[in-house]
Design goal:
The chain is mainly α. It contains 13 helices and no strands. Helix 7 runs antiparallel to helix 9. The model has no long low-confidence stretch (mean pLDDT about 90).
């Protein structure tokens, strides 16, 4: 099980403050983080309600209770704000999926299961951020749309490396497609894109992780390995 760290709203906004010190003019870090939390929460809420493209900075000012002048102390445009949010999403994916426990890396099947667990728990921690990046991507400016696509491809790349290793070591049964990472991605996305559906059905994050792991392994492993691996 993944123990996620560093993905609370405080953590993300503090990272945002450090990363964009050249843009954010507020001098007191605690004040800046507190205000950023309010601004980002309002931006994600408005985007969910009416779409990021339709949201104006005046809308954001009203929703957050931060004056227009106050907003400009944190970013110079709506596009800059978008870039700041997407950068944190991509960085979180890279930091989490790119740093598996050493014991996991010894076995590609264990590593594959860990990646499923790690990604779903990360998106649970950052649910509004990932939902925003996925649902709004088609409306982003070209540069930021590319950022969102790159973030998805980054996720696939971690799964692709482990899949390639499992195939090379003949841990999968013959004929397993190297497109497996592309097929896994929608299962991961469903957790944050269709979160309300799972909530209505009382599906917990642990239950969903186990279901995805079982489905992936059932597609890949030799039949005599399935029971042993699912229990491991």
């Amino acid at each position: 099980m993944l123990e996620t760290k560093g993905h609370t709203a405080d953590d993300l906004c503090r990272s945002m403050l450090e990363r964009h010190a050249d843009v954010i003019s507020v001098q007191k870090p605690d004040v800046a983080v507190k205000k950023l939390k309010i601004i980002i929460a309002a931006a994600l809420k408005l985007s969910n309600r009416k779409g990021f493209q339709a949201m104006s900075l005046r809308d954001l000012s009203k929703e957050s209770g931060v004056s227009m002048g106050g907003l400009y102390a944190y970013f110079d445009s709506k596009t800059t704000l978008l870039n700041m949010i997407l950068t944190e999403v991509t960085d979180a994916v890279d930091n989490v999926l790119g740093n598996p426990p050493l014991e996991v890396t010894q076995d590609p099947i264990a590593h594959l299961k860990w990646l499923v667990d790690a990604h779903i728990r990360l998106t649970e921690d950052m649910l509004p951020w990932f939902s925003f990046a996925f649902m709004e991507a088609k409306n982003f400016p070209a540069k930021e749309r590319d950022m969102a696509v790159d973030s998805e491809e980054l996720t696939e790349s971690f799964f692709a490396k482990v899949t390639a290793r499992a195939i090379a070591e003949e841990r999968f049964r013959p004929g397993v497609t190297p497109l497996l990472p592309t097929l896994i991605k929608p299962l991961l996305q469903d957790w944050y894109v269709k979160r309300a559906k799972f909530r209505r059905r009382d599906v917990t994050v642990d239950t969903y992780i186990a279901a995805v792991q079982d489905m992936v392994l059932a597609t890949c492993l030799p039949l005599d390995q399935l029971d042993k691996t699912s229990k491991g």
